[in-house]
Design brief:
InterPro entries: LRR_dom_sf (IPR032675). This protein is mainly alpha-helical. It is 37% helix and 6% strand.
């Protein structure tokens, strides 16, 4: 995937209220390195990534565990589950290494690997489904 942040950042430089629509762009991963620079200037803005085959693995734990980002993004996982319905406790337990160097600095302690094993993906899906039915 091309680094979309380099294409979008100049547009966002003048306003913190931008709505960025990246719907239907075949985005498969919301990595912090690419998408955080797009979202940080959005004091009141919104990023929309609906209709993309996004794998909701550890690479997007920074979104799920960070309310600033979760409140400013609209989209769903490849299986149709909205980002806001993902269970943060599952991401905390399965994706976050212990003893972070700085509290709140997810970039240095989120496992860089995607959640690849079937059992781990099932735990995330089961935890999120359980949260929805509560």
């Amino acid at each position: 995937m091309e680094d979309v942040s380099s294409l979008i950042l100049p547009v966002l430089a003048d306003s913190s209220q931008q709505a960025v629509n990246l719907n239907s762009n075949e985005i498969v991963e919301l990595t912090e390195e690419i998408f955080m620079p797009i979202m940080l200037p959005m004091e009141y803005g919104h990023l929309s990534v609906h209709d993309n085959p996004i794998e909701c693995g550890c690479s997007m734990a920074w979104v799920v565990l960070g309310s600033f980002f979760l409140n400013r993004i609209g989209g769903e996982c490849k299986d149709g589950m909205a980002f806001q319905d993902l269970d943060p406790e599952i991401f905390q337990d399965l994706c976050v290494e212990r003893d972070p160097p700085e509290e709140g600095d997810y970039s240095t302690w989120i496992a860089s690997r995607p959640i690849g094993s079937v059992s781990t993906r099932r735990k995330i899906e089961a935890g999120s489904q359980k949260r929805l039915s509560s």
